[in-house]
């Protein structure tokens, strides 16, 4: 979680050996980083915690506070700050979390909801990726830009001859396959963590 968007753009440019952005402009690189941020988020999203309150004694928690949520909520804790923690089974229906409890909650009572959310990469703020995810997003972005460059050179006479078109595309394919393999590998730990939440009635 160390680089800003500009920092990652510079790292991509360096990997492409185009530090002057003569071939790939910063806006183009930034757009591809955002596209690949969605790929990272799909495989290994941020595990976030939101504190919500019951508006009444109805067994309903509205999920509007769960910003940029991917899929359904992961876990629900109510009542909070107990030992052991009281994780609850729940339903998620029409944007509402419905805890599986056999008593009426107290109006204004707090509950904790864990959920998966998309990563962020914007402006001067540092991103939400860890170092391994940063490495992978750089590889994915470089691969896509190389693939595009190979396509742009079709029906032209590029420096290095026709073989350079094939080299661009083959290198891009190998780089992307390697990055996706690494991404799938690190996503396993996230999924195991999410699936192993304890729950109580």
If you had to describe this structure to a student in words, what would you say it looks like?
With 201 residues, the chain is α+β, with helices and mostly antiparallel strands. It is built from four helices and seven strands, in the order ααβββββββαα. It folds into two domains: 5-44 and 129-195, no CATH class; 46-117. It has a four-stranded antiparallel sheet with strand order 1-7-3-4, with no helix packed on it. A three-stranded antiparallel sheet has the order 2-6-5, with no helix packed on it. Strand 5 and strand 6 (96-99) form a beta hairpin. The longest helix is centred in the C-terminal third of the chain and has 33 residues, at 163-195. Residues 151-158 have low confidence and may be disordered.
Can you describe this structure in just a few lines?
The chain has helices spanning 5-15, 26-43, 131-152, 163-195, and strands spanning 46-53, 61-62, 75-77, 87-88, 90-93, 96-99, 110-117. With 201 residues, the protein is an alpha+beta fold. It has two domains: 5-44 and 129-195, no CATH class; 46-117.
List the helices and strands and how they pair.
Layout lengths: L4 H11 L10 H18 L2 E8 L7 E2 L12 E3 L9 E2 L1 E4 L2 E4 L10 E8 L13 H22 L10 H33 L6
Antiparallel strand pairs: 1-7, 2-6, 3-4, 3-7, 5-6
Helix pairs in contact: 1-2, 1-3, 2-3, 3-4
């Amino acid at each position: 979680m160390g680089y800003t968007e500009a920092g990652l753009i510079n790292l991509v440019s360096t990997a492409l050996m185009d530090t002057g952005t003569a071939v790939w402009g910063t806006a183009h690189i930034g757009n591809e980083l955002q596209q690949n941020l969605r790929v990272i988020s799909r495989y290994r999203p941020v595990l976030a915690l939101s504190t919500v309150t019951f508006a009444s004694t109805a067994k309903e928690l509205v999920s509007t506070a769960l910003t940029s949520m991917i899929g359904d909520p992961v876990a629900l804790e109510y009542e909070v700050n107990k030992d052991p923690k009281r994780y609850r089974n729940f339903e998620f229906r029409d944007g509402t979390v419905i805890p599986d409890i056999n008593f009426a909650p107290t109006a204004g009572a707090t509950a904790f909801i864990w959920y998966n959310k998309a990563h962020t990469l914007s402006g001067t703020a540092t991103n939400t990726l860890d170092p391994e995810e940063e490495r992978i997003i750089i590889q994915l972005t470089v691969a896509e830009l190389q693939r595009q460059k190979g396509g742009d050179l079709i029906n032209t006479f590029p420096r290095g001859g026709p073989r350079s078109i094939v080299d661009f595309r083959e290198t891009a394919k190998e780089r992307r396959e390697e990055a996706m393999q690494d991404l799938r590998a690190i996503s396993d730990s996230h999924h195991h963590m999410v699936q192993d939440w304890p729950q109580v009635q």
